[in-house]
Amino acid sequence: MKIWKKVLSGAVAISMVSVMAACGGDDDANETPVNDDPANETENNNADNVNNNDEDGAEASEDQEEVTLTYARGHDATGATDKLVEAFMEENPHITVEFREMPADTGQSHDQYVTEFSAGDATIDVFDADVIWPAEFAQGGYVLELDRFIERDGIDMDAYFEGTVDSGNFDGRQWAMPKFTDAGLLYYRSDIVDEAPETWDDLIEMAGEYQGEEGTDFGYLMQANQYEGLVVNAIEFIASYGGEVINENQEVTVNSPETIAAIEKMVEIVESDFVPGNILNFDEPSTHTAFLEGQSVFARNWPYMQAMTEDEGQSQVQGNVEFALLPAGDAGSAAGLGGWMTMINRNSENPEEAWEFVKFMTGPEGQKITAIDGGSAPTLRDLYEDEEVRNAAPLFADEEFVSTLENAVPRPVSPIYPQISDIMQIELSRALAGEISAEEAAENMESQIESALAE
Fold it and tell me: Which residues form the signal peptide (predicted)?
């Protein structure tokens, strides 16, 4: 596979499990509770809950207080979470970690966290967060700032993909640690084309030229429905043309020639003859279903689709699919960042122990467990050189995939991101439907986002 080498400066970052990764990755989250009775309260001195996993029955040192933490995230069908927690408790016998399973729906989990944290509830100590939550939770005062822990323990944040770190940074401070990551990919039929298109213009030309080959109906598939997936697709176009929605100073910069050019390119593709007539209804499931049925030459989707293409039980294109970086605009190639991070409840009664658990989960040992047993892509670059990790999944050993992670850009980091997303969805949908021009869409997004930020 040929890969576009021009990478956006300053923009980098999988939930291998989730089809809903457009929202940052579905809680691929946790499975059965570590203990039979998930905690509803954190009890600092509950000796009955002390972990005795060590084969020799090791006990906590006399100077270490026995502590119970409650860790929350969604269901994890892989079993990796149990192994992660067990490994941590073996190394920290004075800390018991109890698991609280959150709703499978990411939005429901978000709302439940907000309700509890805003009320000052200290039940949950540590929780996994969608990459689009940190700024909102930081602004709301729900989570603990992590900089003092990072500095004290000498954590090298440069060892992580830059985009994953940026997603957890707000107002110049770090509020979340990157746990696993995700990024958009371009899939293509290797029995139809030899190499992936390098630019969006190349894609348009090739999609039109090869549409109909090997029984295909379409040249290209994307997520153009009015939902979070549309925002991710738009961010990829906007960043590839050198634009952005909000800069690091929280200034609205979406109304720019670069953003307008990106929207115009999206409109050109959506209005072409090589996409489905109902492309404005396409989401991730629609995309992978059509592509696996052999209906399209090219498709944009998340990494989870790679394994599906090789599954003979559901794929009609097995052995004929490759992937590459998304096509480039004037500023290079950019992939939308997804994935999950880990945060600490500001009201936790055990912040030091909570940090030790976060540090373990997001460090090399924890991320290796998550990668090998859970199939989730690490946020630490060096783990892609680890033979056990590389052998765990074909993607982890693929240089193009790692380049895609390096190339991933976060969505706007803002405490009002849900409102920004709603605004973008509406105005982008209007532009793609031909109701307004790209210029009008950019102007509308600018004025509405500025008003929302000013409230």
Answer: 1-21
**Which H, E and C letters describe 16-43, residue by residue?**
CCCCCHHHCCCCCECCCCCCCCCCCCCC
Same domain for 246 and 216, yes or no, is yes
Give yes or no for residue 63 having a pLDDT over 90.
no
Domain around 105: 21-182+337-409
CATH number at residue 164: 3.40.190.10
Say what the alpha-carbon torsion angle 194, 200, 203, 204 is, to the nearest 10 degrees: -160
Q: At what angle do helices 228-240 and 257-270 cross, to 10 degrees?
A: 120
* Residue 138 backbone class (left: φ over 0; alpha: ψ -120 to 50; beta: rest): alpha
Residue-wise pLDDT for 211-245, tens only, equals 999 999 999 999 999 999 999 999 999 999 999 99
Q: Give me the number of domains the chain comprises.
A: 2
Task: Tell me, yes or no, whether 172 lies in a domain.
Answer: yes
Q: Tell me which residue of 236, 265, 242, 266 sits closest to 411, measured CA to CA.
A: 236
Amino acid at 146: L
241 is a domain residue: yes
User: Hey, what are 167's tokens?
Assistant: 């997603």
- Cα–Cα distances in angstroms (integers) from residue 405 to residues 161, 164, 200, 377, in the given order: 7, 9, 19, 9
